[in-house]
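Deliverable D4.2, example record:
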Amino acid sequence: MTEKKSRILYIKRFLEEHTDEEHPATIADIINYLSNQSIPAHQRTVMLDIEQLIEIGVDVVCNKSRQNQYFIGVRHFETPELKLLIDAVQASRFLTNKRSRTLVNKLLALTNRHQAKSLASSIYSGQIKQKNEKAYLAADLLLAAIQTKRRVRFMYYEYASDKKKEYKHGQRIYELSPWAFVWSEDSYYIIGHSKTHGKTAKFRVDRIAAPKLTELSAMPSPKGFDLAVYMQTTFKMYDGPLLDITLKCENAMMKTIVDRFDEDVRTSIADKGHFYAHVRVSASRTFYGWLFGMDGAIQIIAPVEALEAYDAMIKRVQNYSCIVL
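Output generated by the structure prediction step:
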């Protein structure tokens, strides 16, 4: 009985690692493989083992066009899905090169050798990566904090004008009740209630230093807190007063508005050549800078507060240009 179980497992492994629709295997191929593993088998036993694999849900497909040829049909991940995941790992600046290679190899192990070779040949490894594992280890601790609903403490740094790391506020210790771990604009962020700021805040995970998991229970997220709304208004336009803004846009700008604010953005017709976009954003320099880059094709209509802030930014830019000239 033990020998039979072992044989079935080896047959399953062989089919998963060596076969697909373009590379089926015959019974003779399977018997030869088993022989190399010092496992005796003959045609009848192998066919019965394959039938048992099918009975337990393994998608073994039999091609009867010439002689019986077998291959694995449906897998946990199809090749295009693995390609997307591998590309995401390779593109992630959050990971070190070593960590990326480890994850890619794990993903390649989920398909057969033929597809793995094809996928590996298209991997490009020239992206900017983390230099060490500190961000990865910080992420592990923060995820544990979310799972166990505990607070974390850490320092936070930015870069000074000489490109050296500079801890904010003289190595202040931040205390955070983490609620969510999210990916945005090529970086991971931790979102939660910051005791230091007295409000909901976000921190880039790769800028967190010396994180420590405390025994203090985390504050729960406030009732009605909508992570999707928070990301839409805060992440895409960064920190600033939250305002409901009406934009007048040239018709050609609809793609730009949808790309920035998603398909659910509320719009209405303004005139033959324009439409209005009604958006709720964090009105910051980043938002006004994005608007400035539209070269007048998107303009603020309301509220007055946003118009005044935008005009003030334009005047600062003009004054700086005059000084430079």
